Amino acid sequence: MQMYCSKCGRENPDDAQVCRACGAVLIRPQMQAPSIGVKSSGMAIAALVLGILSIFTCALTAIPAIILGIVSLVRIEKSGGSLTGRGFAIAGIIVPSVSLPLIALLMGIMMPALARTRQLAFRMVCGTNLSGIGKAMQIYANDYNGAYPRSGGKDGIWRGRIANWQADNRFNAYELRPDGTGGVGNISSCFYLLVKYCEVTPKSFICKGDVGVTEFNPADDAAGNTDLIDFWDFGFEPDTHCSYTYHQPFSLFPLTSSSEPGLAVAADRNPWIRSPAYEGKDISLFNPEGGRGAIRVGNAVTHQEDGQNVLFMDSHVAFEKRPFCGVNNDNIYTSWDGGDIRIGALPQIGCEPSDKLDSLLVHDGP
User: Fold this and answer.
1) Cα dihedral angle (286, 292, 297, 302), rounded to 10 degrees?
2) 258-292 burial by CB neighbour count: b if 16+ within 10 A, else e?
3) Where are the domains of the chain?
4) Does the pLDDT value for residue 62 go beyond 70?
5) How far is the C-alpha of 259 from the C-alpha of 360, rounded, in Å?
6) What are phi and psi of 311, to 5 degrees?
7) DSSP secondary-structure letter at 28?
C-alpha cells in the first residue's frame, strides 16, 4: 500500500516515516471500523402489543406476551447491540403480569353480580310464564263450567304417566271406562290441556332456572308430523318438559273458578319431590321458626332457594320468599296434617289437600 505526502504529494513506500522528496513527516490515514446495522426487535414490539391487549383479553394474549418478552430480552442481550427494544420487551412482561391479577380480582367481584342478574332475569320470565298460564286457566274454566284443567275422568286417579300421550281419543289416552269415568291422569297432562285447547305454547311451561328441562318438541319423540293439539301430554318424559307444579286436582278439592282467591294454583317445582336434576329435599331440615337458612330449605331449588314464583287464584303472580304463603300461612307444597300448617306432610303420589283451603302444589316425579 503506497502513502502520499500531504505536503508535496509525492508517493512513498508504505513503511516510510518521512517523505523522501521533501522530508515532511508522513501522516498515516486512520482506518474506519465497519458500521453495524442497528434495528428494533420486532419480537419485543409484539410482546408490548400483546401485553396491552391482555388488559382486554386476559390470559388469551397475556401468556404469549410474557413469553415473547422474555425471548426478545435474551436475543437483545446476545445481539451485541444490533437489536434494541429492551423497554418494549420489559413492558410486554410487566403489563400482563400486573393486569392479570387486577382482572382476576374484578372478575371475582363481577361474576357473582352477573350470575345474580341472570337469575333475576330467569325469575322474571318464569313469573311471566305463570301469569300467562293463569289467564289460560281462566279461559279454560269459562269453557268447562268453572272447572280448572284435570286430565282423566271425574273420579280418575293420579299416576306418574298417562296411558298413551299420542292416543287418538281421550278414552285411550287416560284409560277411561266407556261411560267416561275412572282412568288415570297426571300433573303435566293437566297442563297440556292448555296447549291442546287454549293455544298455550310448550315454551310457556319452561323456567330457564329449572335444570334438566327443555321445551317439548314432538320431533324429539319421533312424532314430528303430528300437531301439538293432537297430543295429550308433553311426550314420553313429560317431567323434562314442564317446570311447574299444580294444585293437586285428583282429589275431593280440585280448583274451580269459585275457589278461595288466596289459594295457590301453580308455582315452581315442589322441593320435596324429585325433579330431573335434583333429589327431593329432607323435610326434617325445614324449620319455619328458624333463620333464613332454615326457611330456604323449604323453597324451590329452581331459583337458588331464594323463593318461588306463585300463581294465586285471584290471578296475581308473586315471588314468595317462603313456602308458607297460602291461606292462613299454609305451606303450598304440603298438605295439612293437623300439625303446624306452615310445615304439613311430605307430598307423594296419591296425597290430597286436606280441605278446600289447603293448597297442595305438586309435580310428577321422574
Assistant:
1) 150
2) ebeeebbbbbbbbbbbbbbebebbebeebebeeee
3) 39-108, 144-362
4) yes
5) 14
6) -95, 125
7) P
